[in-house]
Amino acid sequence: MAIKQQSSSVLAPERAKTKPPRMYKVILFNDDYTTMDFVIEVLQRFFAMNRERALQTMLKVHSEGSAVCGIYSLDIAETKVAQVSAFAKQHGHPLRCGMEGM
Known about the structure:
Low-confidence stretches: none
Number of strands: 3
Radius of gyration: 24 Å
Strand content: 15-25%
Shape: elongated
Helix content: 40-55%
Largest sheet: 3 strands, antiparallel
Structural class: alpha+beta
Distance between the termini: 68 Å
Number of helices: 3
Strand order of the largest sheet: 2-1-3
């Protein structure tokens, strides 16, 4: 009786090299109408900043024209921009929020 030899060469599983997701900066832009207190509220509510950090970020928006509020993956950045824009519109403020790839 002949015995079949089976090849036992098992391929090593290929390791998929995954790249971290591309990150995006969420940015607030200065305008002449949105109150400083409202910007601080937005920073605390949507970006989980404490009052001091929100105040510093708001002052940067005011003095430099814009400031980065956080860095997120695409889905989260888009959600933050949509939430801030809707909240500002709901309260009658023209506050602009955008995102920029890194």
